[in-house]
Amino acid sequence: MPVPERREPPASRAVKALVALQFLAILAGALSFLSPPTPPAQPGTQALGEAIVWLLALGTGLWSAKALLQGRITVVELLYIDAAVLATACAALSLTDEHRIFKPLPMLLALAWTAQAWTRGRLSRGTGLSLLLAQGCSLAGDVFLMLPGPYFLEGLLSFLLAHLAYLVLFRRGLPWFPSRPALVLPLLLGALVYAGLWRHGLPSALHGPVGAYVVVIALMAAQALGRAATRRTSGALLVATGAVFFMASDYLLAVNKFVMPLPLAPLWVLSSYFVAQWLIVRGWLHAPD
To answer: How far is residue 91's CA from residue 88's CA, in Å, rounded to a whole number?
Structure first.
């Protein structure tokens, strides 16, 4: 018996126009990368790092354009991905002014995405408030950490509140930490990371705040993993994966700041962070409780 051909949903004219603009931007970026105005003066390692950033950015742009045409992501998701790619690439390429322009945009789009779902009745009041609070605190943390000056503690506090809001969100309809393995593993990993930070000279003024942060993010990830183990739905799995990416992003940031500089640190820290936020929102909105 022949298998019926899978047909993609027809794209609207607006979507096709947006994808065409995306392809033009990708083409312009590729031409800029392949024909720089002046010969590169960077050492080989730095030039390789820039090539990796360009290739990942252009590849992500191509993937998101195709996904939009196929109906696998929405327009707001495409805009979120584009803003996240621009913010990450600018940080990795040391384009400070451009990075400060693009850095807040992804979470602003995530807030709009959530607010749109709430107004359409896809989220209850409590769920919508928790998700918006988590995204708003994340946006505040993004702004604090990109500003010049000593705003690390303010950024840490903002993301601490974001993780608490996510923790409350993931608790809805479930008991606290329904899976013991899902609770033990993030706490153990957090303890190992904190011990490494302490050993490598974490400033004494940050012992308490960083310790509290590590515990909260581990509990947030544990609740998300326990939710996935209990619900066994694709949406819950996406949310749990996003929580793990969030934890990884924070640990990479801490290692880079307090232990040793990581090669292409902004690329790994920001890309994992933006993937985390996208997976959490996408997972929750595609299968809200």
So the answer is: 5
> Which of 115, 128, 173 has the alpha carbon at shortest distance from 289?
173
Tokens 């931007």, residue located: 25
**pTM of the shown model:** 0.89
Residue 9: predicted pLDDT: 58
Residue burial 3-34, b: 16+ Cβ < 10 Å; e: rest: eeeeeeeeeeeebeebbeebeeebeeeeeeee
Mean residue pLDDT of the chain comes to 87
What local confidence, expressed as pLDDT, does residue 122 receive?
84
The end-to-end CA distance of the chain, in Å, is: 39
Nearest to 19 by CA among 57, 52, 90, 67: 67
CA dist., res. 44 & res. 50, Å (int): 10
Q: What is the pLDDT of residues 158-210, one digit of tens each?
A: 999 999 999 999 998 899 999 899 999 999 999 999 998 888 888 888 888 89
Phi, psi of 94 (to 5 degrees): 60, 35
The distance of Cα 183 from the centroid of its chain, to the nearest Å, equals: 22
